[in-house]
Known about the structure:
By secondary structure, this protein is mainly alpha-helical.
Amino acid sequence: MSGRLLVAITTFIIGTAFLNTGACLYGQEDHHEEHLQEGSVSHSHEGEESGSHDEEFNATEYILEHISDSHDWHILTKKDGHHVSVPLPVILYSKHSGFHLFLSSKIAHGHSHEGFQMGHGSVLVENKKGEEVEKSLKGKIIEVDAHGEMVEAGLPLDFSITKNVFMMLLSVIILLWVFLSLARSYRKMGISEPKGLAGFIEPVIVFIEEDVAIPNIGEEKYARFMPYLLTVFFFILINNLMGLIPFFPFGANVTGNIALTMVLALFTFFITQFSANKGHWQHIFATPGVPKPILLIMIPVEIIGLFTKPFALMIRLFANITAGHIIVLSLISMIFIFKSVFVAVPSVVMVLFMDCIELLVAFLQAYIFTLLSALFIGMAMPEHHHD
């Protein structure tokens, strides 16, 4: 079993590395040719302008496009400039015209549909202080009038199935299928030696139970938190792994989205606070043995500590996953920046190395988030000590 697993992991790493490189190279080549077709209007007589029509490669824009969310799943751009993408459902609510449901292809490439289009550039909006601040419209759907001008309060409520949402739903379906299948097999076979997929998943579950939950929460209290800890571990893990596969329907930067990591961190925060016992709140507002004047300093510090814990969970997962994607894309971008085979070969080798690291990080970040969640829950339920 371990030998087959090692072969599978090695194949996954090598295949992912070359798919990452190939997909990005092909996508960037098509993107480059598209700009050449759009920009080739005239040439200078002196020859100095002959290279000016070569679209300057913008690594920052290229990387941000790949790690950001979107309303469709871009596959490739053909040489004739046509885009091949998978449209996703757009669900909007406008205070002017109510609910709207259509595919994102209706508003792709500058088109308008039912008074909506994809936003570009930025707009000045008034903040709570009455000051005008610039707000980017890139990647957002805006509501426009008959002349194509953005209407007042032209940002509708967007409930669309974006790329990240689609992959989250896919991960939920996969996890349900895997664990419901395992549950059925256990009911049929009873207690026996696990085989196949169960032989891989059962040791992970036992590890989370014996090395994460019990040491941090306690043997008497851990059982009721196991469903959450296992759910968050496998949810983060499968999205981390699917994010390394660079083709549809995978490759979305789900766990590198700070909105997702914030929600996961809030789950841990609320479970921690609602599970807290008297000793936890006593430690915050009336720490035993601390002089009362010192409590004036300690209480604000402890209250701030309640919120820094989930904040650390949120930032750690978001930053580590996003950084990995950025590094891989930066290594690929070097090929287009230097335009040399002497850079291309080392870049591909480094991408292979980074995919090995990314596979480790995928497991490590799922483990760390689960471990810290168990630790914070356990800290909120200290054992009662008699004075």
